[in-house]
């Protein structure tokens, strides 16, 4: 409703009357409001400045109704009218001087002590439209700065670029920079699960398990538990740490979040396979096929189960299905080649290796397995050549250099092998098998102290992994050879605490006792191994207290 100036506009109080249509002029009731008018500030480029003073203008509004005796008017007492007379702060946007330029009439506003003339544009709507285009009225600048650090909202493409940069930094082992970048991504896009997954994996690579758990938990809360990738990565982390029960719960949560998430079904099935629950694993794989359709990983795992059960034709059929659904699946070709190697079909295995490298030319596993296969078949030069090709395509992979170093040690010289081991350890200082293989070579060369130092270095990386179990077993053999039998027993016991299913460790320990004339104790150790295999339970303190 527009304002119209009354005839009393020339008075000292600058009164304005707010008119509303009515049929009874006697029912007009007037209310007086004191409104402080804050004068507009001039821009910084003006030559003169004005003093800001608070002025009070009384606006007299005439309110009317069809019936003056309505309950609403009756409720307005004298105190209510007085309480309305409060100072109302009028918020006005800051305007520049050029917005007041142009021809137009002047409006005189009387102040308490001085008068000031402000030039008003011919059309106030045009001026406000221009002002709205220039000022972020609907989102204050302070809020934008608090959220994004600038007045512009970051686009989603910035998240994709940041995730790619973090991935590159992680490949170059610049974990600190990658963590900082991913943390910014989480702050800017808290509901996107990719940043949580990437950050959790980087922390897991550095053995920062507690921090990785915190990141995954925070991600599940931010996404309200609807992101299956975070649940699945968290389950993989717990499985690596040996928390099988917790891993099952997390895999189950991932399948609840999205029953079509194939990685959760497959990871859960692999967990059950490692625990010896073959029937449960088959059920999970069947559910994966039911909800997700054909998948090369599901078919590949089922094929390996069939091969383990000596049903080779069924295994080959499942491998064909896996490679049919994804001809670029290098893992399926390699697993099929391993089956043919077990069946001594070397020609078929070579053909499958060729298809594997054709499907993924830079796949380091394909070149490594093929090179080791040729070396075991007596083709040493071809094996070295394949490993060198794989290293040229994957210059930062330590496993290829490790296998090449072992071949050089066996068929060439220990000095060349030492150079290769040193280069491999520099590429990835946290890769335990490199230190273990290097220690084994030094032991064979008679450098006992050097071998112990390398074994200790491997255990300092991670003392609870499968590689740590193999390292303890190798170290136990070393101590047995040099005559430290008590140390060898302790090392064998520590190895079995990590992996109770190791046939080599149990038999090596039994052999040690038998050589010492303790045939009864050696038989007890063998019986304990078969008990472990039949029941598939983890070793407990009672078993080892019995052996002490």
Automatic annotation (TrEMBL):
GO terms for biological process: mRNA processing; regulation of translation. Keywords: TPR repeat. TPR repeats lie at residues 296-329, 432-465. The keyword Cell membrane does not apply. The keyword Chloroplast does not apply. Pfam families: TPR_16, TPR_8. Residues 45-70 are annotated as: Disordered. One of its GO terms (molecular function) is single-stranded RNA binding. It comes from the Eukaryota. GO terms for cellular component: chloroplast. Gene3D superfamilies: Tetratricopeptide repeat domain. This is PsbB mRNA maturation factor Mbb1. It comes from Quercus rubra (Northern red oak).
């Amino acid at each position: 409703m527009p304002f119209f100036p009354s005839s009393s506009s020339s008075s000292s109080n600058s009164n304005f009357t707010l008119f509303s249509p009515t049929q009874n002029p006697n029912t007009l009731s007037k209310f007086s409001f004191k409104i402080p008018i804050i004068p507009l500030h001039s821009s910084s480029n003006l030559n003169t400045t004005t003093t800001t003073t608070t002025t009070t203008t009384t606006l007299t509004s005439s309110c009317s109704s069809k019936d003056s005796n309505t309950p609403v008017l009756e409720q307005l007492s004298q105190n209510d009218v007085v309480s309305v007379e409060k100072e109302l702060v009028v918020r006005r946007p800051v305007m520049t001087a050029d917005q007041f330029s142009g021809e137009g009439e002047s409006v005189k506003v009387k102040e308490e002590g001085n008068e000031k003339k402000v030039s008003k544009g011919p059309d106030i709507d045009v001026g406000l439209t221009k002002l709205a285009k220039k000022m972020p009225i609907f989102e204050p600048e302070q809020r934008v700065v608090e959220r994004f650090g600038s007045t512009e909202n970051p686009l989603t493409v910035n998240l994709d670029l940041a995730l790619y940069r973090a991935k590159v930094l992680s490949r170059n082992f610049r974990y600190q920079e990658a963590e900082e970048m991913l943390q910014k991504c989480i702050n800017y896009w808290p509901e996107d699960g990719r940043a949580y997954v990437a950050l959790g994996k980087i922390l897991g690579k550095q053995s920062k398990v507690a921090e990785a758990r915190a990141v995954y938990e925070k991600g599940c809360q931010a996404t309200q538990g609807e992101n299956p990738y975070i649940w699945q990565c968290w389950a993989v982390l717990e499985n690596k740490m040996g928390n099988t029960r917790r891993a099952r719960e997390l895999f189950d949560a991932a399948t609840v979040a999205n029953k079509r998430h194939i990685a959760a079904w497959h990871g859960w099935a692999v967990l059950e396979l490692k625990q010896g629950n073959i029937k449960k694993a088959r059920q999970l794989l069947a559910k994966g096929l039911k909800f997700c359709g054909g998948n090369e990983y599901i078919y590949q795992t089922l094929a390996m189960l069939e091969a383990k059960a000596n049903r080779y034709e069924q295994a080959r059929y499942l491998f064909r299905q896996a490679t049919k659904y994804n001809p670029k699946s290098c893992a399926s070709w390699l697993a099929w080649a391993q089956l043919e190697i077990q069946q001594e079909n070397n020609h078929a295995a070579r053909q499958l290796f060729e298809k594997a490298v054709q499907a993924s030319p830079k796949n380091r596993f394909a070149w490594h397995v093929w090179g080791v296969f040729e070396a075991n078949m007596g083709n040493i030069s071809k094996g070295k050549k394949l490993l060198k090709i794989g290293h040229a395509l994957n210059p930062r992979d330590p496993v290829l250099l490790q296998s090449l170093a072992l071949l050089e040690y066996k068929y060439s010289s220990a000095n060349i092998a030492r150079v290769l081991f040193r280069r491999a350890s520099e590429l990835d200082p946290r890769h335990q098998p490199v230190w273990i293989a290097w220690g084994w070579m030094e032991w064979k060369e008679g450098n006992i102290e050097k071998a112990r130092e390398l074994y200790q270095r491997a255990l300092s990386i991670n003392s609870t992994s499968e590689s740590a179990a193999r390292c303890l077993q190798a170290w136990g053999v070393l101590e047995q050879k040099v005559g430290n039998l008590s140390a060898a027993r302790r090392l064998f016991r520590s190895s079995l605490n990590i992996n109770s299913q190791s046939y080599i460790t149990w038999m090596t320990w039994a052999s040690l006792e038998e050589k010492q004339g303790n045939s009864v104790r050696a038989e007890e150790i063998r019986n304990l191994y078969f008990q472990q295999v039949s029941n598939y339970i983890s070793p407990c303190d009672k078993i080892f207290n019995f052996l002490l």
